[in-house]
Amino acid sequence: MERERVGQPGFDRIVEALVHRMYDASAHVEVVNGRGGDDGIDIKVTNGSRMRIFQLKYYLDGFPTASFKGRRKSIKGSFARATKHRPWEWILVAPSTLTTAERKFVTSLAAGQSVRIQVWDRAQLDGLMATHADLDQLYETAKVYRQERALLMGGTRDVRARVAALGRQVDGLDDHWTVDFARQGETVVHTLRGKHPRAHQVSPVEISLTGNGPLAPELAKAVRRSLGFGLPEEVVLPRGAVESLTVSGPEWLSASHQDVEVPWRPAEMAPGAETEVEVVFLDGRQVTASYPGTLRHLGRGNIGRSVDVELAGGCMQLMIPDHADAPASLRFTFSLEGLEPAAALRLLRIHQRIVAGGAFHVRARAGVISGGDLPAKPEAARKEAAELRRYLEDLEVVQRHCEQYFPIPAELAPVDRITLRAARLLIDGHCVISPFMPSARFILNGQDSPVLRALLSGEPHAVRVECEEFAITLAGRRLDLGPVLFFHPRVTADDAQQALAALDSGHGDGQVVTVRPANKEHFRLQLQSATTRDEPVPAPLALPGFPEPR
Hints:
alpha+beta, seven-stranded antiparallel sheet, flat
């Protein structure tokens, strides 16, 4: 085969095909598109930890020192860039027969390097092509019949050219409609497209579907939303659900089809339509809340119309039946995953407005687009939303106080929820009863005092301890709340007689004393910055399902 007639694109395609043929069964072959700089790699073959790098140089006359001096510099540069990837083997591929000096120049590049070097020159390529003769015959046939493009000799450029030419032929079938097409595996997908905005009026196209038995419940709901109200969600009717699809319109397009899968998606909004809106909640005529959003879609189906609004982090879909007696419905979907509490609270407040029921409007500058009255959700749903909001508010206050901001934890253990609630109350200046402090331990330093002996007398006494650092752990983070005071007005000591005896004998240093609030109560906590002269009244934790600590 005379590779002079092939040209560089054909030469590259031959070598790429050869490498795939030789290594595909045992390694991963990757052909690098060099438009953005190949970084010293034309083809990369990876087998476990070993990497081969192929460098293709279309030098028909080799790279002698007497002429083409830039070629050796180019080869040397390609090798240097390739060694940055630490290949096991580097292979230079050229369509010429190398001289001894040229071959020596290539192999000398490995001096001081651990990489192996090979050369595929014309002789090597002829041998490989003889082994894989079908590849050589393919390119020769293309040259003989001048059908390089028919066999896609030019690669993706030829693919684009052929597809574009076929598209122009399809465009000529009709003045109002055309068909876009795409290949997905063995399937060819046709998409009907109007050539102008009035195509559906000038040349109507009607699509009729005949179903085959009842749809699965979730698919039936999706069909109602998309076909019934025109919401912009794709619905795929599988082959088993469609008995036939009939297209009526221009003669070239009209046909009846069986055994088809039908994806359906309503048309997009017209370009230039107003998209800035706000969702307004009302009490009579008074606005109780409003949230800015983006109008994504206004739709119409065979049951009614729809409005689709995007709100930061969520999506609101309103379906309004044409029948006046049928109730409207609203679906609000959102995810709190990855959000900080402040952002999540905004979404949750919208959700609470919806579950509470009442009047709302979707407004644009030109006026009200749609609206209605929402029925209140069951009490259980409203309580669940309220409790989630309290949790997010607690987390937001604690993060702001500690100046540590992080996404909402994916899971929260009951003990962490109690700790978080207590921390929020402390930050708000309240006194709280800690359910986790039924006792406290002190280590005596050996010094005696009347106050200490009164505590060890067996009678309840008040205890106040100032702690200069108090922190909680949440979501793997240590959150320092600041100096805290823990106290209780009636505390008794365990093993008081043993401690008194140690003091009397002068061995009190190191003695451990455990004190407990009377009547199985717990210690109180309050931030030192919030303390007053008056004895504080503990604030309840008010957590559903958790008894208040004493």
